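FYI - complex with alpha-D-galactopyranose, inputs then prediction.
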Amino acid sequence: MIRRLPFLLSFSALLAGTAQAQKFEGLALTPPMGWNTWNTFGVNCSEALVKQTADAMIANGMRDAGYVYLVIDDAWSAKERDSAGNLVADPFKFPGGMKALADYLHERGFKFGIYNCAGSKTCAGYPGGRGHEFQDARTYASWGVDYLKYDWCNRGTANGPETYRIMSDALRAARRPVVFSLCEWGENRPWLWAAPVGHLWRTTGDIDPQYRRFKEILDAQVGLEKYAGPGQWNDPDMLEVGNKGLTLAESRAHFSLWCMLAAPLIAGNDVRLLPPEIRDILTNRGVIAIDQDPLGHQGFRYRAGSGMELWAKELSNGEWAVCALNTGESPAGLTIDWGSLTFLTGAYYKVTDTWASKTVGANSSKAWTGSVDSHGVALFRLRPGY
Ligand code: GLA
């Protein structure tokens, strides 16, 4: 009896482990970075577009800045499954097939992402995954898929947590490690149940390239910070940086705040035509480092109102990122008295202006004073010490 006890204990621990944590562990320990077809190209995804994008991202430095997941969103498949019920790529959009495309990407240091939907059809009306989860997971594994975005249209009365758990189990059963991105728009409060199921979950409906929408989504993240961490991220949706509708200051603010939120950084612009000022946003190493900090803390809104918000994010080694967002319609003066920020526990910090990439305070005993563009940001990194 006594000799059997350790066996029983470890067996039940194993059962508990499989029941609660069926997703692939050790993936997305920092927020995933990549590019997705949807925000700019909608249903017009294609093999040529993805290959051109990959080549461009090598040339423009995006891949080396960390954007490695290339994700094909809705409308990649044929309108019907084949006679065996398998998903098949649209032969006109993807004439070489998905396996060859995955190989192309893998050979160039990228990872391959694909999309489907938990319902009977995708949002754009292509075959959905409902009832085919295990078969589809095997198909994805055979193609070399590394990332699956799973949407929530046409799901009838399906239960959210149960439905996503089935796909998570299916991915596990197919045995190829896949980052699982839940896209149920926050409807079932996925931050409460999705961490054992997937690696990131949308918290809201879709973004569009308007400051007003960016701000609504930003506001909706307040309070969710406690649910994020390595391998489990709140997803405030893909980036609109560089897309028509946002000023340069707004694109910079959107990127900065997504980094403060430890959000997945999935670019959604046409990176084949990347103006230098947009490239400089998307590839800014100092700003990306705030997003990718290994501590994995999501930032929180420290102060709101009066036209200027202050956000803070704890980083590893006692460092902090602080971001001021001017929500007003004209440029505004700002003074940050570091000593008044109650989350800072150290005596002194060296303060760097992250976008200017320069030290602005040899130590934090001196307040920072400057001007912030309308809908723009000032972003700082604070390191303990003089
Ligand atoms: C939903 C998702 C979007 C995109 C489209 C595709 O709206 O939230 O991100 O995937 O479907 O149809």
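Residues 300-384 form a domain with the Immunoglobulin-like fold (CATH 2.60.40.1180). DSSP finds eleven helices and 16 strands in the chain.
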